[in-house]
Amino acid sequence: MRHETLAGQPRLPTEVSAMNAASLNVKPAYLNISNVWKAFGEFHALKDISLDIREGEFVCFLGPSGCGKTTLLRAIAGLDLQTRGSIHQGGRDVSTLPPSKRDYGIVFQSYALFPNLTIAKNIAFGLENTKRPRAEIASRVTELLKLVGLPDQGNKYPAQLSGGQQQRIALARAIAISPGLLLLDEPLSALDAKVRTHLRHEIKELQRKLGVTTIMVTHDQEEALSMADRIVVMNHGVIEQIGTPTEIYRHPATLFVADFIGEANKFAANADKGGVSFGAKAFRSAPHQFGPGTPVIAAIRPEDVIPHGPGARSPGAPDIVQQPENLLDVTIGEMEFLGSFWRTRLRGKELGDETLIADFSINAARRLSLAEGGALTVELPEDRLLVFPGRA
C-alpha cells in the first residue's frame, strides 16, 4: 500500500514505524504483526498490515466504522484468525494459536461480566482456572479492587454497579492474571461523556503503573489523542499513518488523516513554486514537491487561522517592516459559540466561492470585537497550510 506524504513521496507504514522507533531509541518490538490479510469471501477487511508494538506501549487503533481496526484486534486475540500473515508476541509465533494459548487479557465494550457472579467472583474467574490457592486468589482480588478504586464492592453483583464501575471491574478481571498484553475493544463507548473522560485518565494511569503493553480500538479521536503513546490510523483495511498523537495531528501523512483527525478546510488548488494558489490568490505553503500547475488539495485546520486587527495590511509600510504573509481580507458570516471558542465562517473576494472555517478563542473574539457581518483580516500560516495530491 502506497502512502502519499505532504511532498507527494510514497511511504510505507512499516517505514513510518521504523522511523518513529529510531527517533525514540526504543526497545525491540514485543508484538510483531507482519503482512496480515483477512478476507471474508471476496471482501478484504485487512490488506497487508505490518506493525511493531513495543513492550509497555499504549497503542490505539483509530478509524471509522468498517476500517478493519476491530478485525485486526480479533486477529491478535486469536478470535478470528487472519487469512495469511504472521503475529509474534514476545518472540513466540502465536499466528495459529487458539485464544486460550495466548497471553492476553481483553475488555469488551459490553463489559461481558457474569451477571450471576459477585464482583469478587468475576475478577477471580480467570485466576481460578489457573488452579491457584484460594488464599492467593482472595488476596489478588482484594489488591485489584483497591487498584481500580472499588475496594468495598466485592460482594455486589454487576447490576448493582454503574456503567463506569462495571468497566473498571472488567478491567480488573482482564489484568488479574498479569497478562503480557491488554486488549481494549472500544471500552468507553457505552459511557456518558463525563464518565468516559474520567475513566480514560484512570485507564492510562493504571496502564503506566502496570507497564502492560496495551492496544485499544476506538473511533473517538479525542480518546486516542489523549491516551495513546502511538496511534495507528486505519481506513478501508490499510494503515494510513502510524505516529505519536502530536505527529498524527500536526503532520498528517494523507488527506484522509488530516480530515479524520480533527477538522480541516480543504481547497481545490494548483501547486506553485513554494506554495499553492486557490480562489483568486497565491499562498506560500508547507514544503512540497508538486510541479507548478499540478492539481492538489490545500488544507488548513480552523484553529491555525490567525486573526489580525486593522492595519495588518500596510501596503505603504517601509521594506524594513516585516508583514505577515498569506493575508486575506474577509467578511465574517455565521458565528457559532462552542464554549471555549467561536467557530466562524469567513468569505471574501480572494477566496472566490470558497468558505474558510476558522476557530477563534473567546479572548480573540472579544479583543477584536468580532461580529457577524464584520470585516476581518486573517493569516494562513505557511507552515500550517498543508498540500496533498488530487482534487477535493
From TrEMBL:
UniProt xrefs under PROSITE patterns: ABC_TRANSPORTER_1, ABC_TRANSPORTER_2
Residue ranges occupied by any ABC transporter domain in the UniProt entry: 31-261
Keyword vocabulary terms for this entry: ATP-binding, Cell inner membrane, Cell membrane, Membrane, Nucleotide-binding, Translocase, Transport
One Pfam family this sequence matches: ABC_tran
One Gene Ontology term from the biological process aspect of the record: quaternary ammonium group transport
GO MF terms, alphabetically ordered: ATP binding; ATP hydrolysis activity; transmembrane transporter activity
SMART domains found in the cross-reference section: AAA
TM annotation in the entry: none
Top-level taxon in the UniProt lineage: Bacteria
GO CC terms in record: ATP-binding cassette (ABC) transporter complex
Family label: Belongs to the ABC transporter superfamily.
UniProt name for this protein: Iron(III) transport system ATP-binding protein
